[in-house]
């Protein structure tokens, strides 16, 4: 059980899970580029000892594999799973009170511990003393990517009414005053937003503390979706195996365990441009107005270490975060949404754009024709739950004669496409919210959703090669089979939605009635790329399409406000309003090879 990040680094190194990089490294693009290459190789955690422009060290890839995370939390993992399971299903504790006494004690012993302010092991520094890490060439500046952002409820102050979240922090660039301001990017559905709304109603600034580092448990706690009644601060203590140590200085909460602490305030209606930033969808999130935090003080421990990660087109280290969270929380979604067996946020599609789900279908077992009914009720619950509500595409079915697994993505899609009734099973929500980072919609946070709910007897045998009709479809060329029942075709560069509707209608008329065994057709810019791998298909299709605008159909129709078709066409071309994809800097890629050559610190990586 680690008291701080330094102990974790030492333990990882002694047991072969970490490499020190002793050469000087530039925080402008080089550190991120090295991290990406090591992560892709399945490599160890990295300690950057000699960072240009800073006297502090930085560590990355701590959570790069589930195995390493399990190792880090090996002494508390089982206990944490038991407590979370107990919180998810409190009736279990009532049924087996003696078996669960130890779990209750574990949670009680993890409650935060208040200390005297004068015992905090910090010195005051400037923000510019931190490593200034810029990740992607077009980023707006340097960012902190693993912060623990702490706020308290203005109506009920105190650590047990606090929120600990992970929202990226822009350190410089744009219009920020150096050492005086930082950008605070938080998305909709976040706890800090509720706190800021309450502070705004009181016409008061919201006090914010940003903790960086400390035991790895504290970092993970900032991203955990916890069951009701289990705070992030208690969970941090539970996972770390020791209570969260804190005090107050100048009215701000200070984590005694952190390596760095930044305190400050955000004021009502006070925003500045934040971004761009290379994000987890594989594109840049563009420049938008977000709250600006006015710095009060910045603190650091002696020998402080800055943890960071790099996000980009998945999979990345945050993919491992998701797997860790899933393993810890287990069946939480089953408890929250009755009738759900499984919900899988598809990482290859950027997590939020695409959900696969397995539910129950018990409403009308007496009917001969099996069709989605309970599944539609469950779908509404899924799309109304936390961050699942940011999804654009939800494919849902129920098991019948054999078990299904949403993580077997092609098999799962195949099962749905074999049973999909395109006249009946498409259900749209327009003018609604989507992920802040998703630029496929009509504006920031604005887009649409579609539920594709299929259940019942198999309706078709899916094509296993490109149907002949696709070889002669005018401007739609170069067809490729992606998987059974799904074909990709190239189309001219996207101009506007009116033109796209005309193009897709002309295409639909050509293939009219000819491809019943191909229910899903993807229109794209590069069908070779899209069909090159399952990962490419899922990423390009679902990050580049907005259901209400980009789904077209063969023989499409409206009946009593319901839309249906014979074949569904998804226009996954890049649109003018989309954010640019993330591309590395070739010069930087070449420069970092010195770390991987025979004399470099990373000579053994990838060999």
What does this structure look like?
- The chain contains 18 helices and 31 strands.
- α4 (77-88) crosses α6.
- Helix content is 26%, strand content 25%.
- Strands 5, 6, 7, 8, 9, 10, 11, 14, 15 and 18 form a 10-stranded antiparallel β-sheet that branches. A 5-stranded mixed β-sheet has the order 20-21-22-24-23, with helices on both faces. It has a 5-stranded mixed β-sheet with strand order 25-26-27-31-28, sandwiched between helices.
- It is an alpha+beta fold and 607 residues long.
- A hairpin with an 8-residue loop joins β20 and β21 (354-359).
Integer average pLDDT = 91
Q: Report how far apart the termini are.
A: 32 Å
* Subunit organisation of the chains: single chain
Shape from CA axes?
A: globular
Structural class: alpha+beta
Number of helices: 18
Q: What fraction of the residues are assigned to beta strands by DSSP?
A: 25-35%
Percent helix range: 25-40%
The total beta strand count reads 31
**Sheet with the most strands, sense and barrel status:** 10 strands, antiparallel
Q: Which regions have little confidence, pLDDT < 50, spanning 5+ residues?
A: 90-105
Q: What is the gyration radius calculated from CA atoms?
A: 25 Å
